[in-house]
Amino acid sequence: MAEYTAPRGTYDIMPDDQPYWRHVASVAHSTTALFGYRQIEPPIFEAASLFTRGIRERPQAGRFRQLFQFNVEAIGSPDPAADFEVMSVAWNLYETIGLKGLSFQINSIGDRQCRPQFVKTLQAYYREHFDTICDDCKRRVDTNPLRVLDCKNAQCQPIIEGAPRTIDSLCEACASHFARLRQYLEQAQRPYTVNNRLVRGLDYYTRTVFEVWANTLGAQSAVCGGGRYDDLAEVLGGKPTAGVGFAAGVDRIVMAMRAEEIEPPALPSPQVLVAYQSEAAKPVAVQLAMRLRQAAVRAVVPLDSRSLKAQLKQADREGVRFALILGDEEIAGRTVVVKPMDGGDQTTVEMDTVVGRVVGLLGS
Ligand SMILES: [Zn+2]
Ligand SMILES: [Zn+2]
Question: Which ligand is the nearest neighbour of the Cα of 137?
Fold first, then answer.
């Protein structure tokens, strides 16, 4: 017989994890609404060519997996106010989630005007150090030069330290854009560090690159990245359209919440369990549970006939506030026993009025 497991690189998000995921989604919805953003839900798959075009470095094989992320994009404005706004959405989001030690890392990688000159300067510098750098960087110097600046190999770190900085080669328009973004950040008192290692490998990225950093597991690390991509629409065959945005991995945020012991709000759980003594009482229990749900009371009824004691244990486990008990005596008299699970006195209530009574008790 075949054994079925989740496809490689995917996983199930189990009930105990759901409060985290729902909370992140809920904060994402409320934060973006605060800024007046509207939602697009794209299809779960797209033509691979949309993502592979323009990539110089081959995507790593065998790393297909399902990603849970949301993106925030401000399309149409080349103004640094848009960069600041998108960065503020990210900031507010992580702040509302409760992550501590938030800060921005920012950089500007220029545009079509000024980047070619910077790339020449960078390549000349790297050629001087060609014997010292790693094999990846040796290749990248020609194929994807900006990416040498975010190489993680130890031998390249001193070379990166001494490398020319993108922000020293900006044209006037790019320099002014970056200066105005920094003014906005300073005005809002957002801590930021200019980081020459923040670069993008694709040509359509322009000017601002940023990351949000937070304290996770006692160290500062990036929780999201974003930036400006004014040339993307053209690369995809559209008319020139400015854009700036960021991507946030939901699993990344959930991991950070767990690391920082941030408790998400609990999800709604059953309020009432309807227990029954005998098989004959079961249809009455099922019907009573339906009446409770019609009155918006979250009710469960044990589906397999077990002892009353086992059913009350289940009520304990589910954390319900009341167990409604249908014994043989109650069935005969068309009544129900209402038992508070916190140990209060139980009462016997008429079957016809029990739903109203439970609603009242739950409200009090
Ligand atoms: Zn390297
Ligand atoms: Zn420029």
Answer: 1
For residue range 156-177, list pLDDT tens digits in order. Answer: 999 999 999 999 999 999 999 9
Domain assignments of the chain as residue spans, ordered by start: 15-41+66-114+170-259, 272-363
CA of 267 to the centre of ligand 2 (A): 49
Class of domain 15-41+66-114+170-259: alpha beta
> What is the rounded CA–CA span in Å between residue 301 and residue 319?
14
Instruction: Tell me the residues surrounding ligand 1 (ion) with CB < 5 Å.
Output: 134, 137, 151, 153, 156
Element (H, E) at 251: helix 250-259
The ligand with the least distance to the CA atom of 175 is 2
CB within 8 A of 124, min separation 6: which ones?
A: none
CATH 1.10.10.10 fits 272-363, yes or no: no
d(CA 296, CA 338): 18
Model confidence pLDDT, tens digit, residues 240-274 = 999 999 999 898 899 899 999 999 999 999 999 99
